[in-house]
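Lab notes, practical 5.
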Amino acid sequence: MLYFAIAALVVILDQSSKRVIWELYKYSGGADVIDGFFRITLSKNKGAVFGLLSNAGHLLLVIRIISIAVLAFFAYRMRYAPAHKRVCLGLILGGAFGNLIDHLAAGEVLDFLDVGIGMRRWPTFNVADIAVTVGALLLILGYALYPDSHLKETEPPLREQS
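Output from the prediction step:
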């Protein structure tokens, strides 16, 4: 159940950070934190991670719900996987669920982290986006570096009763 604990933590961090940032900057729209490199910039996003599929409408909601169901299924199937893989899955699941909450509540997701140099900016993102991206990259990297590690993900042997 490590993945569900990680997912819950991500959802709590994501939702609380969005609420705090909204309350602090809803009138000003944001602030410069590190001399133009890092800014808080309030942005509403109707799309997925980094604004992808922003014109997909209800299709994106269906995709989000199906993705979370598939992730929960994989989380169950990976319950005996090494801890690092379960943590990665928890990050992805928590991030997906955090953005789904916003999408269901408001039809859009609040993004506020703005990073870049001058006019070259990364798309504005939030804690849930970070969790999904980091979790997916670490999971992919783990499978790329250790391609046979999935072979050890079997259930523990049953103990004989005496």
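Observations recorded by the TA: The helical segments are 2-25, 58-77, 83-106, 127-145. The mean pLDDT is 85.
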